[in-house]
Design goal:
Elements: H1 2-17, H2 27-39, H3 43-58, H4 63-76, H5 83-100, H6 103-116, H7 121-172
Helix pairs in contact: 2-3, 3-4, 3-5, 4-5, 5-6, 5-7, 6-7
C-alpha cells in the first residue's frame, strides 16, 4: 500500500517538476570537454571538441551553462559544413531552449531539424517532450487561474455577506 501511495505522489510530483528523459550533464564532464577544446591539436579536433562541449553545456542543470551552450551553438551555426552538422546544431539548440523553458523556440528549431531529416528519432522524441511540457504548463496555468478566480469569488462573497450582515444589523437598531 505504501509503495502505491509513494508512486502516486511521485507521478503527481513529476507533473510539477517537469521531468523528462533527456540526459543531464555535470560540471566534471563540462570541465573535461573544456580541456579537450584547449588541448585540440588541429582545427578538426577543436571543432569536434566544441560540439561535445556544446552538447554538455545544453544538457547541464545550471542555467548559465545552458545559456553558454546556446550562445556557442548560435555563433557556430553559420560555419556548419554539412546538413548533418546543421541538423545536430539545431537539435542541440532545441535542447538548450527546452531546458531554459523557451518551448516555442525549441519547437521551431525541431521543425527545421525534421525538415532536414523527417524520421530522426531524437528530434521526434524531443518534439513530444516539448508538446507534453507545453500542454502540462497550460493545464497548470489554467488550474492557477481557476483557483485565483475561485479565491476572488470567495473573498467577494465574504465581503458582500459581511456588508449585508452589518447593514441589516444597523437597520434593526
Amino acid at each position: 500500500m505504501d509503495s502505491h501511495v509513494g508512486k502516486f505522489f511521485d507521478s503527481v510530483g513529476s507533473i510539477f517538476r517537469g521531468s523528462d528523459t533527456l540526459p543531464w550533464c555535470d560540471r566534471d564532464i563540462i570541465a573535461g570537454c573544456e580541456n579537450e577544446v584547449a588541448e585540440a591539436a588541429n582545427e578538426e579536433q577543436k571543432n569536434e571538441s566544441l560540439m561535445r562541449l556544446s552538447w554538455a553545456l545544453v544538457h547541464s542543470r545550471q542555467p548559465e551553462d545552458v545559456n553558454r551552450g546556446i550562445g556557442m551553438l548560435q555563433a557556430s551555426l553559420d560555419r556548419s559544413t554539412s546538413p548533418l552538422q546543421t541538423r545536430e546544431k539545431l537539435y542541440l539548440l532545441a535542447v538548450g531552449h527546452y531546458r531554459t523553458g523557451d518551448y516555442t523556440r525549441s519547437r521551431q528549431l525541431l521543425e527545421t531539424c525534421l525538415e532536414i531529416q523527417p524520421d530522426w528519432r531524437q528530434a521526434l522524441t524531443l518534439q513530444r517532450l516539448v508538446e507534453d511540457k507545453t500542454r502540462r504548463d497550460g493545464m497548470i496555468g489554467m488550474a492557477i487561474v481557476t483557483g485565483a478566480f475561485g479565491l476572488v469569488g470567495l473573498v467577494a462573497g465574504g465581503i458582500i455577506a459581511a456588508a449585508s450582515s452589518s447593514s441589516s444589523s444597523s437597520r434593526k437598531k
